[in-house]
Write the C-alpha cells for this entry.
Amino acid sequence: MQALRQPYYQQSAFTLVEILVALGVLSVVGTVAMSYMGSQTFLFAKNTSLNQSHASVRSELDRLTNELQQAQSPPILTDTSGVATGVTPAAGLQFDRLVGDPYVITYPGSPGLAATDTSVTVTRSTNILASAPIPRPGDVLLIDPPTGPPIRAQVASVAAGVIDATAKRQSITLTFVAPLGVAIDWRNPPDTPPQQKTAKLVRREAFIVMPSGGRNGLRFYGSFEPLPPVTLAAILNDPSQYVVITDAVSTAVPVSGPADATPFSIDTTGGNRLVTANLGTQAQDYVKSLANKQAANSFNTFVRITTTLPSRQR
C-alpha cells in the first residue's frame, strides 16, 4: 500500500534561526583564524628580515676587516664619484692592498734609475713558501726613493722571464704608465757600493655605498685605479668592476647621527688612523609586508652597528 506523502511543512530542514547561528559561529571562527594567520605571517616576515639584516651586517664587517688588515696604506675617505674627500662622514674608503713583496729591483748601472725611466726589471722568488705573485697590468709598484714618500709606478705591461728552477727565482720586466718622476740612487750615501733595492706590489681597492634602483648598496672595487684611457667614472657603475657586498644598506633617515649612505669616518687616536663604520642595514625582501608597521630605525628589522676597524697601516 503506497505511503502517504507528508505535508511540506512537516519535512526536516534547518530553520532560519539555526542558519543564522551557524553563520555567526563560522564568522567568528574565520575571523580568529584569519587574525592568527595574519599575525603569524607578520612575525615570519619580521624574524626573517631581522635574520637577513644581521647576516648582511656580518658580511659587511667580515669583508671590511679582511681587506683593511691587508692594507699597505692608511685608508682615505672617498665620495660616490670615487674622489678622495675631506668631508666626514663619507660614502666610502679607498686604500692600497698589499699584493706581494719583496721584489728585488735589478741595478741598472750607476747611479741608478732616472726620473724619466719608464721600466724596470725586478726579480721575484718562486719558492712555494715565499712566492710573490707575477704583477698584472693596473697593479702599482711601490719604490722607496732616497727621501720622501714611496714612488707609485702603475704597471702598464708585464714581460715575465723564464723561471730559474735551481735558484727558484724569476726576472720580470715591468713597463709603467708614466715615468717614475723621481730619480732613485743606489748609492746612499754617495761614494758607497750600490745597495740592494726592493719594492712592494699593491692594488688600489675601495668600498663605496652607492645608490641604485631606490636602494643603497655597499660595493667592493677590487681594482680602483684603472689603466688609461679607462677613467674612474667609467668603472663606478660597471658591474664587471665591482662586487655587491649587500644591497640592503638602509635608506631610512636616522633619528640622529650620520645618514646610512655615508657610514665611514676616520678618527686619529694616539697617532693611529682608525676607521669608524656606522653600518645601518634593512632587509628588503618583506619591506612591502612590513610597510607602515615600523618607524624609521626603531623597528627591529633595522640593524645598526657602529664599530672601529683598525687597518694594517695606520
Remarks:
- Confidence is low (pLDDT under 50) at residues 253-258.
